[in-house]
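Second attempt. The first submission of FACT complex subunit SSRP1 had a stray character pasted in from the spreadsheet, which I only caught after the job came back as garbage. Lesson logged: always re-copy from the clean sequence file. Corrected sequence (705 aa) follows.
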Amino acid sequence: MADTLEFNEIYQEVKGSMNDGRLRLSRQGVIFKNSKTGKVDNIQASELAEGVWRRVALGHGLKLLTKNGHVYKYDGFRESEFDKLSDFFKAHYCLELAEKDLCVKGWNWGTVRFGGQLLSFDIGEQPVFEIPLSNVSQCTTGKNEVTLEFHQNDDAEVSLMEVRFYVPPTQEDGVDPVEAFAQNVLSKADVIQATGDAICIFRELQCLTPRGRYDIRIYPTFLHLHGKTFDYKIPYTTVLRLFLLPHKDQRQMFFVISLDPPIKQGQTRYHFLILLFSKDEDISLTLNMNEEEVEKRFEGRLTKNMSGSLYEMVSRVMKALVNRKITVPGNFQGHSGAQCITCSYKASSGLLYPLERGFIYVHKPPVHIRFDEISFVNFARGTTTTRSFDFEIETKQGTQYTFSSIEREEYGKLFDFVNAKKLNIKNRGLKEGMKQSYDEYADSDEDQHDAYLERMKEEGKIREENANDSSDGSGEETDESFNPGEEDDDVAEEFDSNASASSSSGDGDSDRDDKKPAKKAKIVKDRKPRKKQQESKKGKDPNAPKRPMSAYMLWLNASREKIKSDHPGISITDLFKKAGELWKAMSKEKKEEWDRKAEDARRDYEKAMKEYSVGSKADSHRGERSKKKKKKQEKQMKGKGDKKGATSKSSSSKSPAKSMSDSFKSKEFVSSDESSSAESKKEDSEEEGVASPPPSSEDSASGSD
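This time the job returned cleanly.
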């Protein structure tokens, strides 16, 4: 017989909700790990007192009772697994797995039995239903009536909130059956009552979630947050994990308490309690217990009088009362030397801490992701700038978390950390020499051929080559845009407009590291070419040669009809997926044939492009010559006009009356020589499309003489 039995998709009933997870039975005991929270319940084999097999709503269930009165219920078994479980219990736990069916008569009267943490309503010897008393939040009594109220279950669409029992009066003197019933319930119920004094009190602590300043009163079974507006009572049984995280500024500390179920305020749920401390704050603490009680209860973990930093005292007291380890950052160290990474999540800036077994983000909203629930991670280019990148995490349940605006310098450290933890990286292969060794969470979409990406890469190569041919020494790109491990031609994939535009923007970025005057001159110089590129981009020449297709696209065009005939009714999306699979499975020799065709097409394109560029350059030269000639003639005419204006001014100062009379003379009074020269000049200017200025007053005067 096997030493262990493992069952997947088993449901544990906890406070009215069914939490799925994995159940493992071994010689040492029973272990159940919750898939949602990661919480582990461990039942030692020596503690098991009884095992019951019964039919339930989700198939068949297993109920385990321990010697200290705790009850554990696991549902989701198949009927055929009973024999295997029964033999295992006999061999390793020395227990008979009893079969007990629930009563389904539908009667609403019977007998109530209290056994450990369980209230059982029975008809005869068969149970009708059972209520774990830890689910009870309040118990009230009336005349011959007891009312039980339950904790609200956030995970269920409909949850039971109240049950009333009618207790008939008895003839026994001195015993009230209603009060006796209520006392039995309250002795095991999860009812928080602040009786007695607190063990210690921390005053005016800064709390980020829920926001405000609170006094924290520490009681033996719960902690009490007392603020100006709200009060919260948090049982220690709801605390899942404790985190102590240093702030990036090295002057503050976060103390994070993970809660399940969360604390509630109206419709808001707080799954995390986050406290912020300054490292410089010290405190002297005296516990409200005598030294013998402190030693007996905490076994040396706490003393009656303690002093030290405030965050150390709070974390130490919480660790002793909750009896859970405090998680701190591991060996990760970022580019700046801090143990966290600055990033943004849901439009709020915060800190991401890579831990030994997960990631935690603080603080708004706080997020904790365990490694065992991660399907894959992805490193993506930033959407607004090349100086940052995004870190994406997708869980096995399909939830996606995107941490954006991470500095590019953090990429190497974060990639090495993720790789060391053997997490599946979706865009694996972006760093040279890396081999995927963690296949357990491999993603099926990772290796599929992306036809669109292939085409964009080919077009990017051609655009870069054309940009290099047409560039006139504007300088090389020195600031590399972030692209983890990809080739440089992928820049065109992100910026499809013009590859040369990306090079000019790179020049601008590279000058940011130089002195300010150089940066200013560079920006002024580079703006004009970029404007010209945008203007030329608007009007696309229809006579320009078309870009050649890649080998894959040539093959796809030739094979498209065959794929359609082999798969009638196939959609466009499925056709491309199928084409990608066929191309991937194609032999190297066949691919080389299409590569040769693509190379021939590229040569033809380059040849046509050269001929086209020569013709376009000739046209541009003709246009430039005509513009230069026109500008030259405009300058000549302008200089001549200024000269004549100056001479007319001097002559008018000598004889103002004469100039006034001569300025109004008609053309027939002008001498034949002057008129002929003026007419020739006018004809020349008309040929160039420029109007000649009127003859000066001096010329007209000399003509009249």
